[in-house]
Specification:
Largest interface: A-B, 51 and 42 residues
Number of strands of chain B: 0
Structural class of chain A: mainly alpha
Number of strands of chain A: 2
Oligomer: heterodimer
Number of domains of chain A: 1
Strand order of the largest sheet of chain A: 1-2
Strand content of chain A: under 5%
Helix content of chain A: over 70%
Order of helices and strands of chain A: HHEEHHHHHHHHHHHHHHHHH
Strand content of chain B: under 5%
Structural class of chain B: mainly alpha
Shape of chain B: globular
Order of helices and strands of chain B: HHHHHHH
Helix content of chain B: over 70%
Largest sheet of chain B: none
Largest sheet of chain A: 2 strands, antiparallel
Radius of gyration of chain B: 18 Å
Number of domains of chain B: 1
Radius of gyration of chain A: 21 Å
Chain lengths: 491, 221
């Protein structure tokens, strides 16, 4: 019942937002709703943390450390994005990008999006998890195409077609899992419950589970943005409103990864961690490599950030693929760090876009003089995302690579060596492109001054977490990450 | 009892072949309306299979799925697709990147692949699904092929629906369908996704003045 309310809050917020025509009121409703979700989620997670796992509705909901991390990312970035939205969308409304009437639907879909992502993380039933995963696509298609112009329609169409095909393939994986479980668990309703499946996983038919994991990896991997199924991602991320891009990058990709990891655990118990781990490693490695050239030669800064997301989801996949203590711990930490840093960067990018009205890197100069607060945060974000030492992403990348090198598997060592080079190239590409925007000087520049206070508050909120995790890993997070390792290794 | 199972599985085999044929119509036909009718026919046959399985297995909740399936996939979704193509007044012809003869050859190849690739799984399965799993995989592959080879946005929707039909058939034939709550959720998702895609077909027609997805190539590096 406790978990049930976590899903009800965003649903009710969405319902209220759609009936409020005035943006001056609906923005506060939206912020309040996401704040309550955020606080309630912390309380819920503390309870779940205390009892180790939490179940609800006869095993329909299930909360363990893996879901705690995911819901925490959803609600934290969700709250920041709601704060940011109110400032960002107000500025766009002021510029006449869309009517106030239409903005209601933005908030409705925004909270539906949060609702569907939370459902993915807390549903025990793998079939319902699939339904929720598809629902995230459905909730966000109109958000990608929100501005109703040619490129937005194109991005939205590609997004819904590619993701739906991917998800449909994943359904085959779900069906195969159900079929192989049916022999041991019988055809009852809970035969798709993850916690029940895990108990019996070693008795499943290995052929079927191998095939099922492959379909799940390709299917949910499409949504996670793993290459070569990533083609929708740069388009959707660059065309969606900035707060939505932040949610896509920081949260949606993690939710899809969460789905893959659940099956990875099942497959590991059934056929050994070697099979699914190697597949994760290969897909992660390809994703990192694919993103490198596009980051270096990129002309559009939102697309650049989108390709960086492909790279980071690749690193997370690599970490889970290596499967050692450091790898899994690092992957979990990386998921959290990447979510907050990338959202911060998308918020900065949104502010730059509001000021300059362009996404072309070459047309933007001297952002740090025009919008000083955003400029400084942008600079911090760039160093954080490229894994420069004081920041948290350095730690997680270091842990993951160390795990790969120390595992002694030739494939892992080759991957790690190449990834190290790729990371350096990405750093160069990032700094080269972004410094052109942040520094420099050119006439005519837009007038000085930040666009909105709300956006600064939202960015400061995320920056606080970025700095805290950079200094040390809080004991709560540390414990959860260690627990995730135990869940993944099935100890 | 064994006699009944054999008769039962014969009937289902025939229905499976019917479904496969109506999917091939989707590939071989050059007229959009025919393709939508073929989809309605395939969904109807799928509903028949699920009704039969409900009757022979005595699992009552499959009847609910059958009913919902008839209402949604035989009536609502084809009706909606007809409504869309009437509303945007598109040309009837299906345009393809690959010509029809070659498409049909590729379709044959895909069916062979489906049979070949399921052989290893089938060795330990019962007689009942000997033809059902390959056919369902073939339908899924054919749907996928339609999605990548056809130009019109609306044929891509039909390809996606074929993929989903194939998977439903796989679920039915291997494990008597999924749990009811999951199945209803999947139906709901399919309905909403078809509606959203229909709306986008309309919007693309409005802004690009065509529904050839070939023209959607503004966003690239």
């Amino acid at each position: 019942m406790l978990i049930f309310w976590l899903l009800i809050i965003p649903l009710v917020t969405a319902g209220i937002c759609v009936f409020i025509p005035k943006h001056s009121i609906s923005k506060y409703v939206s912020i309040a709703g996401s704040f309550i979700t955020f606080v309630y989620n912390i309380v819920l997670n503390c309870i779940a943390y205390k009892y180790h796992t939490l179940q609800g509705f006869d095993g329909f909901f299930y909360l363990d450390s893996l879901s705690i991390l995911s819901t925490q990312i959803v609600s934290l970035v969700g709250f920041a994005a709601a704060l940011y939205s109110s400032g960002y969308m107000e500025a766009e409304l002021h510029d006449g990008e869309f009517s106030e009437k239409k903005l209601r639907w933005y908030y409705f879909l925004f909270h539906m999006f949060i609702f569907t992502m939370l459902s993915v993380c807390v549903c025990n039933n793998l079939g319902i998890m699939w339904v929720a995963m598809e629902a995230t696509t459905l909730a966000t298609t109109f958000l990608v195409g929100f501005y109703n112009k040619k490129p937005h329609h194109e991005a939205a169409w590609k997004y819904i077609i590619i993701c739906t095909v991917g998800i449909t393939l994943a359904l085959f994986g779900v069906i195969l899992t159900y079929h192989s479980a049916k022999g041991t668990l019988g055809g009852i309703g809970y035969a798709l419950n993850w916690s029940e499946l895990l108990k019996e996983a070693d008795r499943f038919e290995p052929h079927l589970i191998r095939l099922a994991f492959l379909f799940i990896l390709v299917g949910y991997g499409t949504k996670a943005g793993l290459a070569p199924m990533h083609t929708w991602l740069p388009d959707a991320h660059s065309q969606a409103p900035s707060p939505i891009s932040a949610l896509f990058s920081g949260v949606l990709l993690n939710c899809s990864m969460y789905g893959i990891i659940r099956y990875h655990i099942l497959a590991s118990k059934c056929v050994g961690a070697e099979y699914s781990g190697t597949l994760l490693m290969i897909f992660g490695f390809i994703s990192i490599l694919v993103s490198v050239p596009f980051i270096i030669v990129q002309k559009d800064f939102k697309r650049l950030l989108a390709f960086s997301s492909i790279e980071h989801i690749g690193i997370i996949a690599l970490g889970f693929g290596f499967g050692g203590m450091y790898g899994v711990y690092g992957a979990g930490l990386h998921a959290f760090s990447h979510a907050i840093v990338k959202s911060l960067l998308f918020f900065c990018a949104g502010n730059v876009f509001l000021k300059y009205k362009t996404r072309e890197i070459d047309n933007i100069k001297g952002a740090i003089k025009i919008i000083p607060v955003t400029g400084v945060m942008f600079l911090i974000g760039i160093f954080a995302i490229t894994g420069t030492p004081p920041f948290n992403i350095f730690l997680s990348e270091f842990l993951i690579l160390a795990d790969g090198f120390s595992s002694g598997r030739p494939l892992a060592i080759i991957f790690c060596s190449l990834v190290t080079i790729a990371l350096v190239l990405i750093f160069v590409g990032f700094v080269y492109n972004m410094f052109k925007m942040i520094f420099g000087f050119s006439e005519p520049n837009p007038e000085k001054g930040e666009v909105s206070k709300f956006t600064i508050v939202a960015m400061g909120f995320l920056l606080f977490f970025v700095l805290v995790v950079s200094i040390y890993v809080p004991p709560f997070l540390n414990k959860i990450l260690q627990d995730i390792y135990n869940i993944v290794r099935n100890v | 009892m064994t006699h009944q199972i054999i008769v039962n599985s014969r009937t289902i085999d025939i229905l499976a072949v019917l479904m496969l044929m109506s999917t091939i119509v989707l590939i071989g036909s050059s007229r959009l309306r025919v393709c939508i009718w073929a989809y309605a026919l395939r969904s109807f046959v799928l509903a028949l299979v699920s009704g039969l399985i409900a009757y022979f297995s005595g699992i009552h909740h499959i009847y609910v799925a059958t009913g919902v399936s008839i209402a949604l996939k035989v009536i609502v979704i084809p009706g909606f697709l007809f409504y869309i193509i009437n509303k945007i007044k598109i040309k009837e012809d299906v345009e393809s990147f690959i010509n029809y003869t070659l498409s049909l050859f590729i379709a044959c190849g895909l069916i062979l692949i489906a049979y070949y690739s399921t052989q290893s799984i089938l060795t330990f399965e019962n007689v009942f699904m000997r033809h059902c799993l390959p056919v369902s995989l073939a339908i899924t592959l054919l749907g996928f092929f339609v999605m990548i080879s056809r130009k019109k946005a609306i044929t891509q929707i039909l390809g996606l629906l074929a993929m989903e039909d194939g998977l439903f058939f796989a679920a039915l034939s291997t494990s008597y369908g999924m749990p009811l709550v999951v199945e209803l959720g999947v139906f709901f998702d399919i309905l909403v996704s078809v509606i959203i895609m229909g709306i986008y077909v309309y919007r693309i027609k409005e802004t690009f003045d065509t529904i050839d997805t070939d023209t959607l190539r503004e966003l690239r590096e």
